[in-house]
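To: structure desk
From: M.T.
Subject: fold request, one chain
Message: Could you run this one when you get a chance? Sequence is below, nothing fancy, just the single chain.
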Amino acid sequence: MTKLDNKNLDITQKIGQVIMPRIDFKDPESLVKARRLVEECAVGGFIIFNGTRDIVSKITQELQEISKIPLLFGCDAERGLGQVVSDMTIFPFTMSLGAANDLDLVYNQASFIAQEMRECGLNLIFAPVADVNSNPDNPIINIRSYGDDPELVSRLCSAFIKGCQNNGVLTCAKHFPGHGRTGVDSHVDLPVQNTSLETLQSSDLIPFEKSIEAGVASIMTAHIAFSQIGDGNAVTISQGLISDSLRDEMGFQGLVITDSLHMEGIIKLGDEQYLSEMGLNAGCDIILDPRDPFTLIQNLSNTELDLCQLNQKVERIFSAKQKLISKSALSDSNLKDHGIKLREQIAKDSVCQIKGEALTSKKVCVFVLDVTDSEIGISNPFTECLEQNGISLNKISISPGSGQNFITNDIPEDSTVICVVYTTIGAWKKQSYLPDNFKEILKKLESISHETALVSFGSPYITRDFNKFKSIICSFDILDVCQVAAADVLLGKLLAKGKLPVSMS
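Reply: Done. Structure tokens follow.
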């Protein structure tokens, strides 16, 4: 790559470099806008959504070719590129890796994700999730975190960073200074924390410190306000937390990227120009995912920004781009098969058997409690695995809005009762909580005289109030491979190697 130099850029081009709008491949107009943003505004890159391998590869290549300055193409692929590119690999939620606690496994996963990204022309991943999930009721981090132990999170973050960056993809530790204590989804509202600086230093900040030591290329700010720290502003617009803490005290010299400006937690604080000016003045280098990038660039170009600071931001962006091993796509015909095996290994190595022994009964009643709003019949892999192993089962599916539409007395005396709970995490969705009727049903079932088992797919925290079940098994995702692995543990065909990476107290 030729040495990049910002001396010949005009003010609009320099501002363009600090803006990273979205490309939504479901929206044809988004592609038209992307080309204009490259040609007219010299944007520094894009965050991508909702693509397929062929179209993402084609468009990223086209945009790189028409751009005079190499582009950053970022994506939220903390679980694998399959999160945003439909025909690529998706892995179990991050907490699975925390349960497996295997540095090589994390490194190999990160290496694989980086290789799939480069197949699509992508070079910046908004991961690892460096949040320490201290709050069991966290609605948005939860199983996206490696766990609630700062040292565990730190070790695995470092392994992830090295795996990606050794394979040509820049990483971004998020969400500084830690989103794990929140009880509010910042996509919906601005969380306000009373956490002290001392508490952050003893826990939440440790993974970011270790990520910096590991050479992380960038750090993403959290849309969270800390009433006791700095100026009390949301982190994204807080000079005290970004320039003073992250830059000066922690010594971070890489890119600071805002979380998305599409999120309600930041939108409520002001218009896009105000937030961008405040973020840039606070120490951010890249404004991520603005809703109206054309207007924003125009307005910022007509604003008296500190030119020295702006030049420093562009230099940091150029330095990050310079570090990319290659901006060319990779092609590996065996990569997909490797991903399938790696996903299976993560699923198997992460299953946790909190209590109980292998299933001995050949007759079971399975109560399926689904909080995911899935339309694809996610319970099938687990139950099918039981049936394939000679288990005769009666399946009862219960929706969140249903009442107690079953009679425990009707359960045959020789049946084992298995309660299967599916939860997940997603922006705006609040799918990590159990509805009240589900809690009532589980309380009723855990106390019956039959042999009982509780199997959780998703958040492990849902098991904490139901200790009377004879057996409790946790996996951390609803993926088919996770369901099969949990079934194999219940059947005694697979030894549960995973250890819960979070406390249930």
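Reply (cont.): The mean pLDDT is 92. Let me know if you need anything else for the meeting.
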